[in-house]
Each structure stands twice: as C-alpha cells, then as structure tokens.
Specification:
By secondary structure, the protein is α+β, with helices and mostly antiparallel strands. 36% of the residues lie in helices and 16% in strands. The protein is built from 10 helices and 14 strands. A 5-stranded mixed sheet has the order 3-2-1-5-8, with no helix packed on it. A hairpin with a 5-residue loop joins strand 11 and strand 12. Helix 2 runs antiparallel to helix 3. The longest helix has 34 residues.
Length: 404
C-alpha cells in the first residue's frame, strides 16, 4: 500500500477539521442540542445517552475491524483451518446487543408518551401548512389569556412564554412537517388530518424552524419562527392584532396604495376592515377569495403585517439586518418591548420586500416550467408575478407600512 504524502495528509486533516467545525457553530438558530423548552429537553435527555452509547459501540467496532485487518492481513501464509465459532462468544454477542436495544427502547417509549401529552396545555393555536408558508389561527377561547375574536396571522407563531401551548396541525395541499428544534420535535401536517404538538418556551425570544418534509420547489424556503413573549407582552400583542382598521389619510401615498392594493392584491390577501366605496357611495367590505386563484386555497392574511418580522413564509426579514440583530440578540427582559415596536420605516427591509412584490416567482421558485404555472382551473401555486410598476410598488409598500 503506497504511503500517503505529507501534502495529502494535511489536506485530509483540513477536510476533517472542516466537517468538525461545521457542526460546532456557536450561534446556530436551529440547534437541536440547545433546548429552550420542556419537550425539547426531554428529547435532549434521551438523545445524549443514545448518541454516547452508539459512539462507544462504533469506536469498539471500528477498532475491532482495524485490528482484524492488520493482524490477519494476507502475508502469503496458508489458509487457516476452518472451524465453527465459539458458542459462548456467539451467545454473548447476541445477548449484549439485545440488552443495549432494551436499554435504549424503554426510555425511548417513555419519552414518546411524554411528548404526546397535551392534557396540560393552556392555549390552542391552529397551524396550517401550505406551499410555502404557515398560517396561525387563534380561535376564540378561554385559553391564551382569553381570545374574544379570531386572530389569523402567518410567518411567526406568537406564544406566551412559560405556558404549554397546543398546536393543532394540518395542511391544505401536500404533506409538510413542522419543526422548531429548540422547542420540540417535528410533526407532519397531513391534508385531511389534525396532528397535535405541545409547545413551550422557557424564555422570551425568537426560535427558528424549518419544514422538514419535501413539499415542492420552495421546500427549503418554507421556514417558520416561534416568538415567545412574557404573558403581559402577549396580551399587548393580542390587542394589537385586534385593533380596528384605520384608513390612510387622504392625499397620502398610503391612501393611493390602499386603492392599488385593493385592485391588485385583495383577490387573495385579506386585510381585516378594508372596505371599498362604490360610485353611489355604498361602502362594502373587501373580502379575499384565494380559493378561486391559489391551489392551496389560501394566502397570508396581511392585517397588521408590520407587527411581524418576516414575510413570504418567513423566508425574508421585514427588518434590516441591524434592526433584526437588535431584536434577536435582546435579553428576555428587553425582547418584548423591541418586538412589539413592529417594523418602522427606518427599519424596513425595503430591498427584499420590493423584489418580492415586483416578481415573487423569480425570488422564490414556485413553478418548474411554464406549463406548470397554472394548475387545474387556472389556479397557481404561490404568489404570481402581478406585473406591477415601480410606482405601484411604492404605493403598496407605503400602504403596508401602516399595517402595524
């Protein structure tokens, strides 16, 4: 066997170091090894000993293979006498793995049952996956501190910190999988079925997640964030979501944007309280009908959009990098006030938002070919290119900035 040169050995060491360091990121937002909730800690307490035992077994097996390869390599010696194995050794090597599997299986089954517990939840939120974003629906309930009117939002799941929350998960189109590693394990969302997941965050903050079931071209862009707030801040958030609609002042760019939004975006996107006035003065509510245009039958509700930090399925931030860092890196005591400020004009990430409104399919893959731009009945997947002008985009952005 030829000797490995010093140069090649250095390359191998560098390559191995790269793989090791890649798994040691200090600020990984989806780090499953840093639990921040009760169920996530249960998973952590199970996976650590399992990985430890698996690592020890792996080292022993690799060492045994290396010893056999070196000790009994072919040196031109005659073929050794063939014989049956030793019964005692064979029995021992059968019983030992069985004991290891039992030792892993018992705590695993126990943990699975504990993770499935939902009887102690204090708040119910309906979560619906669709290509390629998540909808969060807070129904009327006594839980969550009491909710008198339904709240529908997207992108960021807002929950009270320190409370057990029941997520009722389903899907409108294909199978998705909901996973926020620091708070709990993953759970599939299946059309026509409701799966439950218990969620709890110890401290206020933002916890990142990702769809973990391939669901189409933008599967990798289907993200989610859980925002945990102190109970008093959560009450403020609820009140903000239930504020009455306020029309932009006449003669402003936002007022023009309201009309532009109504004419181009309201077919799919709902803004609660938005109305239109006919020539005869009749005022009627503007109601979205995404079921007529989108395969999943739904589009994000844009009411109070600027109270969120993300858009387009949490793929991009509404905040500039500087403002985002302030929120993400805030202490638990400071986080609530910073998050509740929402997105202001000086913190708006206008670059990504403008690109999205101009041509969404170019920014987030949705169609694999021109032939698939329209599905059955002329419905599309995701947001289509509306062909808006820069002036119209300016108007819509000015209008959306007031959705706070």
């Amino acid at each position: 066997m030829p000797a490995i040169s010093l140069r090649h050995r250095r390359r191998l060491v560098a390559l191995a170091g790269t793989f090791v360091l890649a798994g040691c990121a200090q600020d990984a937002p989806q780090d499953t090894w840093k639990p921040a909730g009760e169920n996530a800690r249960r998973i952590q307490n199970l996976q650590w000993p399992v990985f430890l035992v698996a690592g020890i077994v792996g080292v022993i097996v690799m060492a045994a293979i290396a010893w056999v390869v070196v000790r009994y390599r072919d040196r031109g010696q005659p073929m050794p006498k063939q014989s049956h194995g030793k019964p005692a050794l064979e029995i021992a090597l059968t019983i030992l793995p069985a004991l290891i599997l039992v030792g892993v299986g018992i705590p695993t089954v126990s943990t699975v049952f504990k993770l499935a517990k939902t009887s102690d939840t204090e708040c119910v939120i309906n979560v619906t996956g669709q290509q390629w974003w998540w909808e969060y629906d807070y129904p009327v309930q006594d839980g969550c501190g009491g909710i008198s009117e339904p709240i529908v939002t997207s992108g960021q799941l807002v929950i009270p910190a320190g409370k057990h929350v029941l997520l009722r998960l389903t899907s409108r189109d294909v199978i998705h999988s909901f996973w926020i590693p620091k708070l709990n394990g993953k759970k599939d969302t299946v059309p026509g079925r409701v799966h439950t997941l218990r969620m709890e965050a110890d401290q206020p903050g933002i916890y990142a997640g990702q769809c973990t079931e391939f669901c189409g071209l933008s599967h990798a862009n289907m993200k989610m964030e859980a925002v945990a707030l102190y109970p008093e801040d959560f009450e403020t958030w609820k009140a903000n979501q239930l504020k009455d609609y306020v029309k932009p002042d006449e003669g402003t760019l936002a007022a023009t944007g309201e009309a532009t939004f109504t004419a181009n975006c309201s077919y799919c996107h709902q803004v609660n309280g938005l109305t239109s006035t006919a020539a005869d003065g009749t005022v009627t509510p503007v109601l979205a009908n995404p079921d007529q245009y989108v395969v999943s039958g739904s589009a994000p509700n844009l009411s109070h959009l600027m109270t969120r930090n993300t858009f387009a399925g949490a793929t991009w931030d509404l905040l500039t990098q500087e403002c985002r860092d302030k929120v993400w890196n805030a202490s638990p005591e400071e986080f609530g006030a910073l998050y509740l400020q929402g997105v202001t004009a000086d913190c708006l990430n206008e670059v990504d938002l403008r690109e999205w409104i101009r041509n969404a399919p170019a920014k987030k893959p949705m169609y694999s070919s021109d032939a698939q731009k329209a599905d059955s009945g002329g419905k599309v997947r995701g947001m289509p290119n509306l062909g808006l002008t820069d002036t119209q985009i300016d108007q819509i952005i000015a209008y959306l900035l007031e959705r706070n």
